[in-house]
Amino acid sequence: MILDSPEASDALGRRLADVVQPGDVVALSGPLGAGKTSIARGLLSALGLAGEAPSPSFAIVQPYDPPEVRLPVLHVDLYRIEDDHELDELGLDDARHDAVIVVEWPERVDNNYWHDALWLTLEMQPDGTRALTARVPQAWKGRWPLT
Predict the structure, then answer these.
(1) Which DSSP category does 97 fall into?
(2) C-alpha gyration radius of the chain
(3) Which of 44, 90, 96, 126 ranks highest by number of CB atoms within 10 Å?
């Protein structure tokens, strides 16, 4: 899939909001500026968040709960995580049963941690577009690709 603008990344996030459910993990991988946060913001907006979602770069985990959004969401940014053991302190294992987890920089920890995630990888192209590839786990069959 090709995303030709920040608006296209936002629109992808909005379409994801139609199919996510508690327990889902959406892993957003790609270099700085690739559109990971735009996808997350589109999803949060479509779930009802008023205003623009801040990047969780410094907080690491930014929670959103009803009535602010339709479903509980944890927006996670692992850019500053150095070690898999730091994840234990974040409490994501407990939260993932009740919330949608949208994680940026998932590759900063062992890939097995996100084995059941819808893994979206963004690559910047020479023409400024983003090529998106998806690794789709069994739990997402029938929900991906988005139409």
Answers:
(1) T
(2) 14
(3) 44
